[in-house]
Known about the structure:
Layout: H1 2-25, E1 30-34, E2 37-40, E3 44-47, E4 53-59, E5 63-68, E6 72-79, E7 83-87, E8 92-95
Antiparallel strand pairs: 1-2, 1-4, 3-8, 4-7, 5-6, 5-8
Amino acid sequence: MRRIGLVAASVTGAVALALSSAGSAAAAEGTLTVGLNTYTNPSGCYTTNVWPMSVVNHTNQTATVFGLPNCQGHRIMPVRPNQARVFEFGTSVSIP
């Protein structure tokens, strides 16, 4: 019975370790250009006053364009890794 408890504790620890390292792997690596600004290893929300808004995504994550500042309003379109797009109505970009 004691051996089962040790095995269960070991498995629980291994699962916790695997999940904690998976969270850090989700951060974007590379550069994201929003309007005239370029961000290295971006994370979060980026707002620009440049119109039309251009987004160049050279990261390993998909960025999402929003219609209002601070990543508010409706989602306009995703910008996938290694993709560039111009948006007439975009104002902000979110990336994990």
